[in-house]
Amino acid sequence: LGVHCFWEGERHFGGLAGVTATEAGFAGGGEAVRVTFDPRRLSLRALLEDARRAGLADHVRARDDAQAATARAVLGAAAVARGDAFRPAPEADRKYYLHGSPLARLG
User: Fold this and answer.
1) Burial of 98 by CB count in 10 Å (0-12 exposed, 13-18 middle, 19+ buried)?
2) Could you tell me where the DSSP H helices lie in the chain?
3) Total-model pTM
């Protein structure tokens, strides 16, 4: 998902039930968050609707035609691109909000 701030995107999406992982990075010329989720607990449509409400869905990079169709239905055609041109952020920029939390000490 293309976002205006990947730190905010990781914080938001990481707190959703059904999201199993987030990764800060870059895609489509801007900041992005790769979101991995369990589709039995959270549908792509519900994830995208939540992202839209939160203002965290500048664009979506869909991996296949089914994802692209769902994204177009929720966000509009202009917000959808195909492919996974994702580049991870530097290590120091990942999981930013966890660095200062008690969770940072869990191993």
Assistant:
1) middle
2) 6-14, 44-53, 65-75, 96-99
3) 0.82
- 3-state secondary structure string, 47-77? HHHHHHHCCCCCEEEECCHHHHHHHHHHHCH
Cα distance between residue 53 and residue 86, in whole Å: 23
Two structure tokens written together for 81: 């691109």
Nearest to 85 by CA among 34, 20, 10: 34
Buried b (16+ CB within 10 A) or exposed e, 12-24: bbbebeebeebbb
Position 89: which residue type?
Answer: A
Mean pLDDT of 69-87: 87
- Look up tokens 């996974």; give the residue: 84
